[in-house]
Amino acid sequence: TGRLINMNYLRINLFNGEVNVKGLHIYEKGRKGIFVSVGEIDSRVALLKMIYSNYLIKKLHIKSPVIRIAQKGNRFNYDDLVKRFLEEEKPAKQPSAPTQYWVKQFQIENATLIYTNNKPAVTLQLVNTRADIADLAWNNPLYHVALDTRLQTGGDAKAVLDFNSNSLQYHVSADVNTFSIGWMYPYLKDYMKVSELRGVVGGKFQLTGNGNRPLDIALSGTIGADKFAILDESGELLTAAEQMAVKIDTIHTAKNRYDFAYINMSKPFIRLTMYDKGFNYERIFTTPAAVSGDTSHLVYSNIFLMMAGYIQDLVKQYDENEYKVNRLSIAGGQCIFTDYTHGDRFRYVLDSVMLTSERINSQNDFLNFAVTSRLNTSGKMKGTLKVNPKNYKDIIIDAGITDLLITDFNPYFKYYVATPFQNGKIRYVNVTSVLNNQLDSKNVLDVERVKT
Fold first, then answer.
1. Model confidence over 143-155: pLDDT tens digits?
2. Distant-in-sequence, close-in-space partners of 258: CB < 8 Å, separation ≥ 6
3. Could you tell me which of 28, 132, 117 has the C-alpha nearest to residue 80?
């Protein structure tokens, strides 16, 4: 390996083939620390078969291994091992037959995987990990792996992987329970000047694909998130959602199909603030290059960039998407808008926001959305929005606002006309269509009981 390896204890029983190792340590390149440590290895080998180059391992049990993966840009602490064992060498003599081996029972128990990255500074640990693999063989390309693990910051996952090493075809069945997303905060800071990222994700899903065609995947199942929140640098809530849930009937990228049974969101929140130099989001967004000072390896070091690159590749590969959503629902939404650009502070709250849509289909003439909201505790808004899925510039709006208090807008009235209002209500009806770049808008504005 080109690395220092030592162990505390080794016992070999020549009568029954039992091999026991304790305290195994594989060091980093240059002996700069421990790369892999293993508490104990128990195995049972058919010794007589080894004389005939037949390696039968009846049991291989690895207990309490700790693996440390360190990343710097696009370099990893195992690169020297990959180069050493995968570099092409021409053998002096071609072997007459492949090495024959069998592993009847392979088990890893109480494993720990520690991943660290230097830019951004991230540490992620998977603990209490267990893996079971049965019937590994030199002439069997099929691998069946059962995996159970826990994220140190919260959450656990179970998965079953079936993999064909010849075709690189794979199938994953996973059950993820309340995985914390807080560990992704350093990656988010590459994009936004924020102080905290909260939330948990989970779901049950089936994933099928092929290593030769990484963009072609088939996915089905349920995915959800709870208690999602992003806080700005002052500790103020920037955006949040109480709960999000998606049931995927079929996502098949090769066939360009995206079918969802439902997409639900409960109590989403967004805070918009306007300053003389722009909105709060314009002020907090940054670029990964500005943060790291190095643009050459960003795609390897930031998970959000990797996801964005994957989505861009999908968009380039498929020009048109076929999608269906049986039901879209957003309930209990809230938006707080604050404007500091006109003297007195203007603050307006939209709450009890509801948006629903049934049978969204990319083949429909129009996608229909129904929207209702309360406006600053007194006003009411109700309307519909229609969008042409084949040309998003074609829209039809039919909306009405009632019981809107004029006094809510006094900061603007004082700034523009130097006169605040003491009373008054607004009723507004709007029907607007933009079809084939032609605008048709009908508006009715009623102002009642105005008093200055």
1. 999 999 999 999 9
2. 250, 251, 321, 322, 323, 324
3. 28
